[in-house]
Amino acid sequence: MALLDPTFDDRDGQIWFDGRLVPWRDARVHVLTHALHYASSVFEGMRCYDGTVFALSQHSQRLIDSAKILGFDLPWSRDQLDEAINATVAANGLTDCYVRPIAWRGSEQMGVAAQKTKPHVAVAVWEWGAYFGDEALAKGLRLNIAKWRRPAPYTAPTKSKAAGLYMICTLSKHAAADAGYDDALMLDWRGQVAEATGANIFFLKDGVLHTPTPDCFLDGITRRTVIGLARARGIEVVERAIWPEEMEGFEQAFLTGSAAEVTPLAEIGPWRFDVGALTRGLAADYRDHVRGLGPSRLSGVGSLRVA
Questions:
Q1: Are residues 61 and 141 in the same domain?
Q2: Rounded distance, CA 167 to CA 42, Å?
Q3: What pLDDT, on the 0 to 100 scale, is given for residue 5?
Q4: 269, 182 Cβ separation under 8 angstroms
Q5: Domain count, the chain
Q6: Do 144 and 226 lie in a common domain?
Q7: Dist. CA 28–CA 106, nearest whole Å
Q8: Does any domain span residue 280?
Q9: Residues 108 and 152 in one domain
Q10: Across the 307 residues of the chain, what is the mean pLDDT of every consecutive 10-residue run?
Q11: Closest to 205 measured CA to CA, from 249, 144, 262
């Protein structure tokens, strides 16, 4: 499984920090930063392909919207954030990379209240291959079922890509790895299928794709892109509540996300899935789409609809 470089604080490069590019090692915050103590931060994850950041403005707008949901406004517009992200990619001399913008409340005030804090934004980029590793793309991932559940929308700001919401994702990911799995499937507070620890999920049955309704987790930009690609192929996509026991009848399954892209699943708990033509076809469509290459090289809808 692909792991992050363990020395992310000690490397060459440039990070965009509050309006200017600074040397990588100088991009630091104070230990009393409000976000460190109270999780008052939001972030984005996106990828740059061949020098172009995919869905750039959508991600920048979601960062702004996420901050608003947490109660703070960013002093940079969407266009300014787009420009900052492109400048950071260029300054680091990369054409294919992962992009991480983050916004947080600073150290001007300590305590739960944060009205006097100043908002900050930083953008970092780095080379990052397949999130789960190349082998997973061929064989499919193994997931267990997390004990932690996605919270109800009336208990947490679930429409924000807020750092605090990922605490249970980290716990679930660690537990899965300790048990020999690649990742974990998280249910929601009702016991319905929600998502993996950092990616949305799809299932195939009888030529139809099924995916959970995103009413307590992010409606991912990659998720919406893949839905569009599937429908362009003439594949029906149904967004609905999915219960765990339904997984016994699904034929294929895959994850979607900016980091994960389109990654097939081989098993979730006791249920097994084929890494079949439809999953591989949509993964190829997505790879072509993000690089502006048009439809994948597979021929016809029929080849994608088979189980």
A1: no
A2: 13
A3: 56
A4: no
A5: 2
A6: yes
A7: 11
A8: yes
A9: no
A10: 64 96 97 97 98 98 98 97 98 97 96 95 94 85 98 97 98 98 98 98 98 97 97 97 98 97 97 96 96 60 34
A11: 249
What is residue 102's predicted lDDT score, i.e. its pLDDT? 98
Contact 20, 26 (CB under 8 A): no
Residues with catalytic function: 161
Kindly state the tokens that stand for 148: 């932690």
Residue type, 42: V
Tokens of 74: 């960013």
Three-state DSSP string of the chain = CCCCCCCCCCCCCEEEECCEEEEHHHCCCCCCCHHHHHCCEEECCEEEECCEECCHHHHHHHHHHHHHHCCCCCCCCHHHHHHHHHHHHHHCCCCCEEEEEEEEECCCCCCCCCCCCCEEEEEEEECCCCCCCHHHHHHCEEEEECCCCECCCCCCCCCCCEHHHHHHHHHHHHHHHHCCCCEEEEEECCCCEEEECCCEEEEEECCEEEEECCCCCCCCHHHHHHHHHHHHCCCCEEEECCCHHHHHHCCEEEEEECCCEEEEEEEECCEECCCCHHHHHHHHHHHHHHCCCCCCCCCCCHHHHCC
Longest dimension (CA), the chain: 60
Residue 55: which domain range? 14-126
The whole model's pTM is what? Answer: 0.92
**What is the pLDDT at residue 7?**
85
Domain boundary among 126, 153, 169: 126
CATH of the domain at 73: 3.30.470.10
**Is the CB of residue 105 less than 8 Å from the CB of residue 35?**
yes
